[in-house]
Amino acid sequence: MTAPTPDTPLVLALPKGRILKAAAPLLAGAGITPAADCLDEGSRRLRFPTDDPMLDVVRVRSFDVATFVAFGGAQLGICGADVLMEFDYPEIYAPLDLRIGACRVSVARPVGHGAADIPAHWSRVRVATKYPALTRRHFAARGINADIVHLHGAMELAPVLDLSQLIVDLVDTGSTLRANGLEETETIASVTSRLIVNRTALKTQPERIGALIARFRHALSATPEHEAATA
Ligand code: PRP
To answer: Considering the chain, what percentage of its residues have pLDDT values greater than 90?
Structure first.
């Protein structure tokens, strides 16, 4: 990776979709004003200037925020704890829980299968998920081998179309599960979004990156807990 130099803009990676909207008030609270089309999902631009000539923003898929930061393409990012658990990148430091995007990673299966998600005598189970590593770890801890069907969306279709017995996915309101004849059987982890930074960048430019972390911390302290949790 190329470490940023003091005379080049830092890059903050933001996730597309619902977290981007939830992050907007925090960015404002941190005094970061990206170009107006950054929050417009219709815009095809991927990199945006901000009102600070030494800070740019890039808009990428939520899973890719962690990868851009781990490889140093972006020095900071906003990333779900689910993604951090999946990749477990040692290069990433997550100093702040931003208290937005609250949801959970859960196991679900078709309704009407009794109490247990997995019959006691099973030693393997087929699971559709976008979290292969997290899912394998979770079932391995229960002594069960998870055969992973790796999907990037529409996991809820997998049990119905016989691709898998279970799914592991994000659940917020539960309406996607209900609409597809599934029920949650187990919560693996609670999820919120985190501010993440590249450790090397933080070591080489502690003042600039530390100042940005402090601005997010200040924005958080000005946001009442209950408002952040529902964002
Ligand atoms: C997530 C997740 C579920 C849905 C859960 O998908 O994968 O499909 O949200 O939300 P709910 O419990 O409120 O129904 P998202 O909309 O983020 O899109 P994705 O499929 O691209 O991940």
So the answer is: 84
